[in-house]
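Data deposition worksheet. Section B asks for the primary sequence of the deposited chain exactly as it was used as input, without tags or linkers unless they were present during the calculation. Section C holds the resulting structure in token form. Section D is free text for depositor observations; keep each observation to a single sentence. Incomplete worksheets are returned to the depositor.
Section A, Depositor: J.P.
Section B:
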Amino acid sequence: MRRFVRDNGLTLSFGIAFLLALVGQAVAGHADFNNQLADDGLAQVGFGDYLMSSDFAVDVTENWQSEYLQFFLFITVTVWLVQRGSPESKEMHKTGKESDKDQQVGRYARRNSPRWAGVGGVRQGLYSRSLGLVMGVIFALSWLVQAIAGVAAYNEQQLRQLQAPMSLGDYVGSADFWSRTLQNWQSEFLAVASMAILSVYLRQRGSPESKPVGAAHSSTGVEG
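Section C:
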């Protein structure tokens, strides 16, 4: 058990932090939701009912979709785009998909390589893009759930104010939807851009996200 915890410490720590934050969001969101209902003169809802509500679903998924969009884009665009001096970038001469030898696929696969790395055709093609594909699919599904939950939450608010509800298509084109979406996207893009350029000049000793403290500013693709 100790070895398992040590070997998976990063995933376990962030997984626990995620669950704690999600519980905290649920508790705070439930209280805020009931405050809104009280202001509108409506009956309050229980914690379980709030967890099943569209308001909670849209608040959760609008954050998830922006995070997975960030990772999907960062994983895919760094195949071709580089930043001189950043450990978040490949070395300047390695832009593109790289050779089979560099990627250890096909006849260059090793004994301990994943099985699909050593085969050709569709399986190797899928596996060689599997990380980006999965991130993209999770983003798309989160975005879809956000849209469906968002229109339900929006229409609940409309009905409280005795106004007409909106269709899913109209909601996806509405200011409310894009305000929620873009306020998350812009923060993700800013965070990635900041990390890429700040890591050129700043250091964090011992972190794989940083270059070695003594590395030159121009050193690219080097991790500490």
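Section D:
The chain has nine helices and no strands.
The radius of gyration is 23 Å.
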